[in-house]
Recover the amino acids of this structure.
């Protein structure tokens, strides 16, 4: 049976603005012109996408292609319901950053998303666990987690990506006193902030791990050494222009081993853009891949994980 004949079960997060409602309607119109059978399940609140995914996994139906229609938060919930199942996953990007969609060669394009849903072949990718929380894109503690923790309810829906700038200014007082102990490949490192990247992209179109990718069973551990608002601004501008790895106080470590993050005080941590954990954090690869629909030829060059270290000069 060809993919275009399979049944697409779309888990849709309807709590978005009018723009994304229009984008979802556009996606459904495109799908109506294909041979796909479409079933739509709407989430009713936090955690509902995880519960619905577990129910779909329990059906054990080989013809189902699961589709996340929402942002990276919706994908994260679905990911945490996929454990033990073999459902292939696709995306319709309706979020703010859409990091996974960019990783898959979809970007923000509804046209491209539908092309991939009806024509792409599932490929294996590797997720990870932070304590008991699964993630596919990144986990972080420091600048990003304090910023995400400072987001106000409904702010992202109202202002989009600009909401993170407002949140960063509110969180700025906490930037002065940050110190993490990050253990990678058995060696302890001290940093103000750490991003444990599974994906190449971060926060949207910005590249944080140029040689990384979700198809690789490894982590790119990005350590930002200095604390403070000035350092945060400098790191942010470097990320904006894809020059973060060139800074002398940024270190990138590559590993496929377990990573530990500790701090002298309890520190909030983010996984795939949501605050859901706190230090101490234990991060490990999930050895069993999940299947995902991505654009042909969009994979990064294959690389075997190992205890390599790259320090910006």
């Amino acid at each position: 049976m060809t993919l275009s004949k399979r049944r697409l079960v779309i888990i849709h997060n309807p709590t978005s603005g009018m723009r994304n409602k229009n984008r979802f309607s556009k996606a459904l119109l495109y799908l109506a012109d294909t041979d796909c059978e479409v079933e739509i399940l709407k989430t009713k609140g936090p955690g509902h996408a995880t519960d619905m995914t577990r129910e779909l996994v329990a059906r054990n139906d080989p013809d189902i292609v699961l589709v996340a229609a929402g942002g990276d938060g919706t994908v994260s919930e679905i990911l945490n319901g996929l454990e033990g199942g073999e459902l292939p996953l696709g995306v319709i990007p309706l979020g703010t950053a859409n990091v996974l969609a960019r990783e898959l060669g979809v970007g923000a394009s509804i046209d491209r998303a539908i092309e991939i849903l009806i024509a792409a072949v599932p490929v294996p990718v590797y997720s990870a666990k932070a304590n008991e929380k699964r993630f596919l894109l990144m986990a972080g503690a420091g600048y990003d987690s304090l910023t995400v923790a400072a987001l106000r309810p409904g702010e992202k829906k109202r202002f989009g990506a600009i909401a993170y700038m407002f949140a960063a200014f509110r969180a700025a007082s906490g930037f002065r006193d940050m110190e993490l102990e990050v253990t990678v490949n058995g060696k302890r490192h001290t940093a103000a902030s750490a991003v444990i990247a599974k994906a190449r992209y971060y926060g949207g179109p910005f590249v944080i791990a140029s040689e990384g990718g979700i198809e690789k069973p490894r982590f790119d551990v990005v350590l930002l050494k200095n604390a403070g608002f000035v350092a945060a601004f400098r790191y942010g501008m470097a990320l904006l222009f894809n020059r973060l790895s060139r800074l002398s106080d940024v270190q990138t470590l590559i590993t496929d081993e377990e990573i530990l993050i500790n701090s002298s005080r309890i520190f909030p941590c983010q996984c795939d853009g949501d605050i859901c954990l706190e230090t101490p954090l234990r991060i490990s690869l999930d050895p069993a891949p999940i299947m995902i629909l991505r654009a042909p030829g969009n994979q990064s060059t294959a690389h075997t994980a190992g205890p390599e270290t790259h320090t910006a000069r």
About this structure: DSSP finds nine helices and 21 strands in the chain. Residues 70 and 94 are 4 Å apart (CA to CA). The longest helix spans residues 18-32. The mean pLDDT is 89.
